[in-house]
Each structure stands twice: as C-alpha cells, then as structure tokens.
Amino acid sequence: MAGLRKIDNVMYRVSDLDTAARFYEDALGLQRLWRDDEAGQIGLGFPEGGAEIVIHGDPEIPNPDFSFLVDDVAAFCAEYAGQGYAVIKEPFPVRCGWFAVLADPDDNPIAIVDLTRLEERD
Predict the structure, then answer these.
(1) What's the pLDDT tens digit per position in 21-63?
(2) Residue 103: which CATH number?
(3) Strand locations in the chain, DSSP E?
(4) 53 and 7 belong to one structural domain
(5) Are 53 and 74 within one domain?
(6) Residues ≥6 apart with Cβ < 8 Å to 76
(7) pLDDT tens sequence across 54-107
(8) Rounded to two decimals, what is the model's pTM?
(9) Which domain holds residue 103?
(10) Same domain, 55 and 78
C-alpha cells in the first residue's frame, strides 16, 4: 500500500476571510496561493515544503483540522479497509480531489486527501 506522502494542509476557521488572509500574509509571511469564494476558503503557502494553511468559515469543519496527502483516496481506503482497518468517513469529493477519514487502532481520526481534481484541470 502506498503511504502518506506529507501533511497537505492545516485548516483554521476564521470569522472574516479577508482580515485573516491579511494576517497570515503580513504577520506570518505566507503567500496567498488560491481563493475559492464558492467554498469560502483561501489557501496560503509556506516558503518551503509545499503544505498549506487553509482558512475558511465553515462551522462543520473541525477547528483546527489537518489532512495528509495520498495519491488516490479511493484506492488507499479500499486497501486500508481490506487490511481490516476502519474507514470512518468514506471518500467524498472536495475542491481539490477526494477526502476521507480513517481510524487508527485507538479510533483516532486520520484525514486523507488527494489532488486528483486539480490534476484533471491541468
């Protein structure tokens, strides 16, 4: 089974996207990478490493939240479940690709994401 590749993102819920984006850019030196007004999210990048901070206003998303990058969420979940491990939340589409939540043996959630929808746009 292919493993986790890296931390893809850390998400923070904010009360005002524009104010928060200015803070992350000006005070913390991150660079705005993308904005999705439909989803109410802004992605900010670090100078090194490729991970992102994503700010949003969605109360349904845990705060904070983070995801690990995998090549293919559906394939990863199928192989993971095939080894007898639990998938808490089955794959579902998100802005960049697919997302799912796995459980470790102590039921800790492990969020995974892939970038397959972004690759389709290229």
Answers:
(1) 999 999 999 999 999 999 999 999 999 888 999 999 999 988 9
(2) 3.10.180.10
(3) 6-13, 31-36, 41-45, 52-56, 65-69, 87-93, 98-103, 109-113
(4) yes
(5) no
(6) 1, 2, 70, 100, 112, 114
(7) 999 999 988 999 999 999 999 999 999 999 999 999 999 998 999 999 999 999
(8) 0.86
(9) 70-122
(10) no
